[in-house]
């Protein structure tokens, strides 16, 4: 019995290799490179070089599977299959040479897109030109279940062997290299998992169309978990849309995540229950599917408005490009399932696969469009700031507005991130190749090239790094001590100081955060409350408010003075510009502010949080 088991296992392994030889070779090659990486992990430059081989191996695995499945359904002979595999190998080699030596975000995103495209290709490659909707569903069900089984078996095998190695290490003082666990995982995930998965791919695919197997657990999962979640998210998004209409506010950028999750969950759940839609007890599925896509369209319109707002402000980036493309695809799929009579579910993976592959390369691709968009924004803002004059860069002669500076910094940072700083060379009279090429070796691989480029423009990156809604800056104003203060018209002089360091957790702007009491000559008590966010000083006696001093008034006077002097960073302010006079029915006061310290949002002309205040307050009670 033991020998029979071993013989059957060997036969199964040989059969799998014979059927999917190029895929298994790609898996073994990629695993070997991954194991070798554990020996060179201190050399980051070499690691990134080796990752190019891993990327190609990972892409080759599903690509060769798709070729084999496509060839099987058309009974291609071995010679034609070899030709297809050689063409695929040529594409992989071509892709290898498109990868830069440093694995940047462009390489990573393109790889992720290609992996998605290759896996989608596997899902329908055996059914290209075949009208076998049920067979297509059964095939992908088998792949999905085999994937879950492979992942479970691989995890258990790794845990068991890793524990065995740990036991030997502890009990026998074997002193294993800690990287042995990583190498073990690479072998199990790369070789065992792949081989086990490939062995479970259906061989007689043409017979699947007549199979009516539908797991009850799948029905329960889709009908009682996924579909209720879809309905909940529909209610949330429609409630949010109602809020937008009532408040007339633009939708938040976060709404894109919610709409995408709703779309994926809804489409996935509809795919799961597709085989049982024609049963008498499940006629509601067709109605639900139609209503789902009808109600999805307004949400896609909401998503379009949300992403267009961001593009209008900051241009196109890869993420925004993908949201726009995916949104357009979802509109197409929705219209297809609303109006099409055939309602072929193969349209979902096949059209998405084509779309994903098209976005990877070419002038219409995500990277080309994003780079062009950011260059347009950069050119516009540099021209407005008189830094780009007659097509050439000149150093900034005046301080930029925060919004202008932030857009310039963001665009240059983006161009560095996608390895496209070469696009700026025509604007510079100086040679910037020495800056652009600094990451070609280990010595300069982590240099901040964008900061140097911005420095040539006369822009300090740190001043404009954060987004408007997140950026805050410290403000500090002071005036020289007045040599003398006229007090003859007042009864009292109070030295007032406030420090906010103990109140950072206070978020309620209506709640007082500091109270100070002063004793007057007639033994009355004068109280002063300070509201650190609102910037209000309330003077009162025996709980009766006497006067309200609003610091925004003095901040406005300071800002006007700075504008007159054309110095936005001015801190030393004349004492008369930091003075407020107030009068009510029961009190007259004159306040000389010596220091005002706090923080301000970039899009605000005032102080949004006060931290330290010192002032002399003259009082006259009526």
Summarize the structure.
The chain has 622 residues and is α+β, with helices and mostly antiparallel strands. The chain has helices at 2-19, 21-37, 44-73, 78-98, 105-124, 133-172, 180-199, 216-247, 255-272, 284-314, 318-339, 347-358, 366-384, 402-417, 433-436, 449-456, 551-565, and strands at 388-389, 392-393, 472-478, 492-499, 514-519, 525-531, 536-541, 544-550, 579-583, 587-601, 609-621.
Structure, explained:
There is one protein chain. This protein has helices at 2-19, 21-37, 44-73, 78-98, 105-124, 133-172, 180-199, 216-247, 255-272, 284-314, 318-339, 347-358, 366-384, 402-417, 433-436, 449-456, 551-565, and strands at residues 388-389, 392-393, 472-478, 492-499, 514-519, 525-531, 536-541, 544-550, 579-583, 587-601, 609-621. With 622 residues, the protein is an alpha+beta fold. The radius of gyration is 34 Å and the shape is elongated. β7 (536-541) and β8 form a beta hairpin. Strands 3, 4, 9, 10 and 11 form a five-stranded antiparallel sheet that branches. The chain has a four-stranded antiparallel sheet with strand order 5-6-7-8. A two-stranded antiparallel sheet has the order 1-2.
